[in-house]
Write a structure and sequence with these properties.
Rossmann fold; six-stranded mixed β-sheet; 9 helices; alpha/beta
Amino acid sequence: MIIVFRGYGNHSNRLFQAINIEAFCIENKVDYLNPSFKDMSKYYGIKNNFFDPAICFLMRIFKKIKLIKTLDFNNFDQNELYSNTILKKRLIFAQGWCFRAHGLTKKYQDYLIGKYSLLPDLYIENDLYKYFITLDRNEYIIIGVHIRRGDYKYWENGKYYFTDDIYQMYMNSISSELKKRSNKKIKFILFSNENININRTEDIIVSNNEWYIEQLIMSKCDYLIGPPSTFTLWASYIGRVKYYQIKDNTGNIDINDFSYCLGLEK
């Protein structure tokens, strides 16, 4: 049995942490418990006989004073070692980000989508969602744009911190590319953790919703663009939506560079 006693990172990171470990456990018939996910379970209706969160806290204390040994996923190069350790030990307390079930998150994607899909009660009456579902997909191509700033100003020395005009260039580029292939209208929905200074038109909508609603709507778009972020990748994975990662300020998109998220490499 493996018990994940500590989640890693924000909401999307924790989801990817969970599905990588769980997919491996399903494949190898290892019992899996993730008490660290209890606070997130309310979004997905997961009932997993969770431990009291206080027990997770105690495990962290016990680890610190060396009363228990834990398996810490802190090195991507040790994935084989982690896998073998899980299979050999009867009970493991685990934490960390660097475990990947390569290929298995794809193999069990249907199951994992079913388990980790947002509860309809949380979005069914949302105004943006109600508008979204009225859009005729025979008339519109809907593109979700994740404008990530905030901590990205400092993460990787600001490598993926782009101004609104750069996002606008990418929006213009994909719009041009799609219009070469289709007569459908283009509708953009913008999602951001900061104010956006992009001219609003009838074809540009700016969301202002809770993270879980925004991620749900992103997962139902036709295409997604944004800088490298597990937030966008989770929407791609859960909704099987093609995505494109913005990694420079050229503003040029080749439609052939879009792909689906089937898990994570790193």
